[in-house]
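User: I've been going back and forth on whether these two constructs are worth ordering. Before I decide, could you fold them both?

Assistant: Sure. I'll take them in the order you sent them. The first construct and its structure tokens:
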Amino acid sequence: DRAGLDEDRPPALPPPPPHPRPGARARAARRRVIEARQLAKRFGGRAAIEDVSLAVARGEVVGFLGPNGAGKTTTLRILAGVFPPTSGQALIDGHDVVRAPLAARRRLGYAPERPALHLEMTVAGLLDFAAGMKDVGAARARRAAVADVLERTGLAAVARRRIGALSKGVRQRVGLAFALVGDPPALLLDEPTAGLDPERRADMRGLIRALGAERAVLVSSHALAEVGTLCDRVVILHRGRVLFADTPARLAARLRPTSRIEVEAAAPAGALAATLAAVPGVRRVDLVTQTNGHARCRVEVEPGRDPRAELAARVTSSGWGLLALAPVETSLEEAFLALVASQEGSQR
């Protein structure tokens, strides 16, 4: 029986618990649980990170973004106590990871992108081992902790299977389960949805959101659109330094290079594009779709201009039916790329 082992059909996650009331979440979010204070790390003569400061409060999920080599993994490893910073301070629930490593690790769950799992062990055996490492308690307490994590992560069906026989996607979830043992208030998750199919990726996002309701979660990801829906804030690292720290919406708003408007009309595509391009303030018009006598165009507008009323008037005065006219929001991915590109340009 290979139930639960198929890469494309891992065991389903249980439904997440109800989202906490806004007031409860706001009260929980006041206490900082994960903190980096002016962290720097040098390997030989090379600076991996410089002056990195960030904080994640209880009840908050923060996305950690940056190009490859930006220093994200280095920062996560310092926070996890894998190696010390060259300078600066890393705190987990108020405990310095260098001066009080045991206290910090008991309050932290760390799931690296490629967790070092013991492939010959069963899932339940590994989690019991984790419970012992984290000093969860006597055998009965460990069993209860393991059962809780198995249920929460949807791994109960594969609890007695060897980890080496599981698919990559399920192993990724085992790594998260390992991090959750002991119910730590802080979670560091490095690419937690890597290797999951779209349905399980959505399930995992729901699980992380649920976990973040009562914990501080710092999650590294390359899936920018995913971060936009998952995270309360984003921290962008570039060349070892913090480039941006704010909400996904403010990132997109800050870097909107020009306004864009989509116009759909019952009109010939070429004629519609030419008519829209003639409106003052329009910089460029791109045809998006054309079907059955309908056309949809994306209009790029000069900064500070809002020609929507004139665009609508030109369409209707041409005798065409105006089907839609709406601004286009800048995606998180577009904003991220624009921010990094602007930083690269300023350093040339």
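The second construct, handled the same way:
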Amino acid sequence: MEKCFFSTIAIILFSLNVNAQNCPFDNTFYRDLTPPSSGATVSDPCVFGGDLITVNVTLGETYDFSTCSTNTLDLTMTLYNTAGTDILATDDDGCGPFAGPATISWTATYTGTVNLLVDEFPCNSGTNCITLDVTWQETLGTSDDFVFDQVSIYPNPTSEVVYINLRDLKDAVTLQIFDINGRVLHTKRILQSKVVQFKLNAPTGLYFIELRSEDRKSIYKLIKN
């Protein structure tokens, strides 16, 4: 009985591994589906498997690509860079049930165009209508209640050393540095310093600086080159 149980688990894990797909860049261009502004969602109710969708993106902004409202098809989505040479993200069954729709959430690592390939599993064309939603997530730290108006961060981009000028901010502030996966790289409690200096000992890429007081919070983008 125990041997049979572990054999079943092994088969399931093998199936999950097989179902992870990176589809080749061979779909046919269908249309552009770029949200007009931060916080907006645009939809197309009838994308087919085998279609290619373009979306204009902005460095540091997060975009959601979802077919979760299509509940009857086993779908795969593959996100490529502008040239179609590099895979940025991929998903199969990410909406929940096994052998179901796909969803991708991706933070842009450049400003330009991405290519989204929509396929019926594994990487097939089809004639079934698929509802595709593309959302430009609302930018953090834009509300008046959460902005440190006088803060400046420089140099940005930086090669290593970063300065944060808090100017006339009198509240105690907690500083945190995050990577694009949300991992905390650095935390510092600032009490009276007007200018804070730190070294970003991390690979080239996009990072986020969060400044938080008792009643305010703001998040800034920082590029390491």
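Notes on the second construct follow. Residues 2-18 form the longest helix (17 residues). The two ends are 56 Å apart (CA to CA).
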